[in-house]
Amino acid sequence: MTDTVTVLRAGALAVVVALFGAGLVLMTREQFPFAGLSFLGASVLIYLRESRL
After folding, report:
1. C-alpha dihedral (46, 3, 22, 19), degrees to nearest 10
2. Stretches in the chain below the pLDDT threshold 50
3. Model-level pTM?
4. CA gap 14, 26 in Å, rounded
5. I want to staple 12 with a disulfide (CB 3.0 to 4.6 A). Which of 7, 19, 23, 49 is the partner?
Protein backbone atom coordinates (compact mmCIF):
# COMPACT_ATOMS: atom_id res chain seq x y z
CA MET A 1 0.00 0.00 0.00
CA THR A 2 1.10 3.51 -0.62
CA ASP A 3 1.41 6.09 2.08
CA THR A 4 -1.61 8.02 0.78
CA VAL A 5 -3.86 4.98 1.00
CA THR A 6 -2.60 4.23 4.50
CA VAL A 7 -3.37 7.78 5.60
CA LEU A 8 -6.84 7.62 4.06
CA ARG A 9 -7.58 4.30 5.77
CA ALA A 10 -6.40 5.66 9.12
CA GLY A 11 -8.48 8.81 8.67
CA ALA A 12 -11.57 6.79 7.79
CA LEU A 13 -11.02 4.66 10.88
CA ALA A 14 -10.79 7.77 13.06
CA VAL A 15 -14.08 9.05 11.62
CA VAL A 16 -15.74 5.67 12.25
CA VAL A 17 -14.63 5.71 15.89
CA ALA A 18 -15.92 9.27 16.27
CA LEU A 19 -19.27 8.35 14.72
CA PHE A 20 -19.66 5.36 17.05
CA GLY A 21 -18.78 7.55 20.02
CA ALA A 22 -21.28 10.19 18.95
CA GLY A 23 -23.91 7.49 18.49
CA LEU A 24 -23.37 6.20 22.01
CA VAL A 25 -23.58 9.69 23.48
CA LEU A 26 -26.74 10.41 21.52
CA MET A 27 -28.29 7.16 22.70
CA THR A 28 -27.67 8.05 26.34
CA ARG A 29 -29.36 11.41 25.71
CA GLU A 30 -32.33 9.58 24.16
CA GLN A 31 -31.90 11.19 20.75
CA PHE A 32 -32.45 7.91 18.95
CA PRO A 33 -32.97 9.16 15.37
CA PHE A 34 -29.63 10.98 15.39
CA ALA A 35 -27.91 8.05 17.07
CA GLY A 36 -29.26 5.76 14.38
CA LEU A 37 -27.99 8.06 11.65
CA SER A 38 -24.59 8.13 13.32
CA PHE A 39 -24.42 4.32 13.43
CA LEU A 40 -25.63 4.11 9.85
CA GLY A 41 -22.96 6.57 8.73
CA ALA A 42 -20.30 4.57 10.54
CA SER A 43 -21.51 1.36 8.89
CA VAL A 44 -21.43 2.90 5.42
CA LEU A 45 -17.97 4.30 6.02
CA ILE A 46 -16.72 0.89 7.20
CA TYR A 47 -18.13 -0.66 4.03
CA LEU A 48 -16.47 1.96 1.82
CA ARG A 49 -13.20 1.65 3.69
CA GLU A 50 -13.08 -2.11 3.25
CA SER A 51 -14.29 -2.23 -0.33
CA ARG A 52 -12.65 0.85 -1.89
CA LEU A 53 -9.50 1.65 0.07
Report:
1. -20
2. none
3. 0.88
4. 18
5. 49
